[in-house]
């Protein structure tokens, strides 16, 4: 009822606004004096972590996109090759697994059957298994060698929001822990990342305030038949997640693309009035990627796209080419997805509401899929 929803019209709205606390709770107890130490990983023994030569992240749906984002950071910080596979594809490819492979499963519920079966397969084949999970004592964390709980609090809405940002946070912490233990990350980089975590709740609060602007935007877009999302680097899985949200709760065809892939096919989809969200990386911390994305915007604009640019505050470079600009607080590249996804979550929610749909209980979907 309304009380459970904290005065919001849906659990999803409430859960979007809970992201600052969700992320802070995931970080709590795992950071001190500028370094990251996850007790559950430390319990595996530093030696074992030092011998890991490959990481495979598995998950389904939103969890797999969190995995894709985490993969960029873990590879960067721990200098271990990381790949991401959908849980239900994993076993059927007869993956190469050894006792030096770490398989990190990502699951909000910890009960998704596809992911559980993939974890069991990894255990049988001798891999080290780490569970990133939100539900205490669920099956997947119990089966795994180590459980890194996200502590985002119960998530009721079928479409995942706060669990997603908490999963990214947990994966980043794992990357920083591995990087420290393996000596692949210097103290300054570690301290900078820790500082980003400390500043994050306040920035998330500001991103949550994008709601009113998004509500207006969604108003005129309620009869959109298709919406595209573009991103580069960690912005790419963020684009995929923005598209998934829209499919899940607003039943609108949506696709996310890597911005660089545009010219290899998807640009053919662009015609007059096609709405495209573009996640623009920071010009300060990622100038090269930024300029590439700005030229992507020019290309689609020239073909008639209606561009909704998600930028960091102060970036005026897109103003001549964007129809709408959503401004977010400044953050380092890896921390941008955590902020950028929030307006995309609001957008899906507002379009769903505008269409008179049940935001929390979309048709044909279940919160936790316990069949293969
Ligand atoms: C279902 C839900 C999705 C979720 C996916 C994975 O399909 O509808 O929102 O992302 O399962 O769930 P998990 O609990 O494993 O994170």
Automatic annotation (TrEMBL):
Enzyme class per UniProt: transferase
Record's keyword annotation contains Repeat: yes
Catalytic activity: D-fructose 6-phosphate + L-glutamine = D-glucosamine 6-phosphate + L-glutamate
Coiled coil regions in record: none
All residue ranges annotated as the SIS domain in the record: 45-184, 217-362
Cell compartment(s), UniProt: Cytoplasm
UniProt keyword annotation of Transferase present: yes
GO biological process, one term: carbohydrate metabolic process
Chief localisation class: cytoplasm
EC number: 2.6.1.16
One Gene Ontology molecular-function label: glutamine-fructose-6-phosphate transaminase (isomerizing) activity
Assembly description: Homodimer.
Protein name: Glutamine--fructose-6-phosphate aminotransferase [isomerizing]
Organism: Leucobacter insecticola
Originating gene: glmS
Residues of the full protein shown: 245 to 616 of 616
